[in-house]
Amino acid sequence: MSRSPSFWVVIPAAGVGSRMRADRPKQYLQLGGRTILEHTLDCFLGHPNLLGLVVSLAEDDPWWPSLACASDSRIHRAAGGAERADSVLSGLRLLGKLGAAADDWVLVHDAARPNLIREDLDRLLAELANDPVGGLLAVPVRDTLKRVGPDGRVRETVDRSVIWQAYTPQMFRFGALEEALAGALARKVAITDEASALEWAGQSPRLVEGRADNLKITRPEDLQWLAQRWSNRPEA
Ligand code: C5P
Known about the structure:
Layout: E1 7-12, E2 30-31, E3 34-35, H1 36-45, E4 50-57, E5 75-79, H2 84-98, E6 105-108, H3 118-128, E7 134-140, E8 145-148, E9 154-158, E10 164-173, H4 174-186, H5 194-200, E11 206-209, H6 220-231
Parallel strand pairs: 1-4, 1-6, 4-5, 7-11
Antiparallel strand pairs: 2-3, 6-10, 7-10, 8-9
Helix pairs in contact: 2-4, 4-5
């Protein structure tokens, strides 16, 4: 493994999170006495190689200004967009204005993944430091997979040995990522993560195995599970 490179971070945090059925976007729900978004930011703000961080927020977001980290000079605010990929591209545009160079590494991480641990972040940085493309944290699927028909009945069992779940952070060179994302969006290609933009541009991002508990909080039970787990931590 190589030494950890310096890096920028973009956190798309402009989603509504309707599947949580809450009174506010999921990144502002409480977990262990602070918001999910604050926990998510912690892992990066505590890293010595951080160059700067952009959070993409909804224009009318009333919650962000009340967070203590809103006044942190390393954090910059970009305007979120209609889809996650638009929010990420907006964050990248701001990084360009902040001085990011084409070869600099950028890590994109979901606001709703507060359980990223430093060990996973450092492994991603070290394993991709000399990679020509970049890559992402990912987790091999554990369960048997079924392809289903419109009638809700199984059509076939899928070979799971070659299927991984794409997690974040996803780590790419600033110039290549901005160009791929802008190009794919301009051609109305459906982009659900940064790797898919690079794939569209003809690249093969590398998978770095991460912990399965770096989950994206999507449903109420995800938050309950994490809150329960954290309440059992020795330092909690
Ligand atoms: O909705 P989902 O969980 O897939 O969103 C993943 C991440 O993308 C979340 O952190 C969410 O806030 C962000 N997002 C965004 N802009 C959107 C939609 C989602 O920044 N328009």
